[in-house]
Predict the 3D structure of the following.
Amino acid sequence: MPGENKLYAVEYLITVVKEDIPSLPVSARTIIKKAIEERLMIDPIGFGKPLRYSLKGHRRIRISNYRVVYRIDTAKHIVIIIAIKHRKDIYENF
């Protein structure tokens, strides 16, 4: 099928860039970046788990002790990263 191999573009909310990423340990940044490139850009629906309740419409992937919460704009083929935090902190602000 045409367009089947099209990668998703990844966009980050400004809070993720200014707060979440700088607060991550360097070792975690590397594996999270790799997971975003290898999983979310390729198949964000297949790799992610849908969230419920107040986060309905969002998905998450688990990377070690961290979680990446995101939304998918299927029409534009974009993954929007909402938050990247440690698993104990990720759901506090939603």
Observations:
- The two ends are 38 Å apart (CA to CA).
- The beta strands are 9-12, 49-50, 59-63, 66-73, 78-86.
- The domain at 9-86 is CATH 3.30.2310.20 (YaeB-like fold).
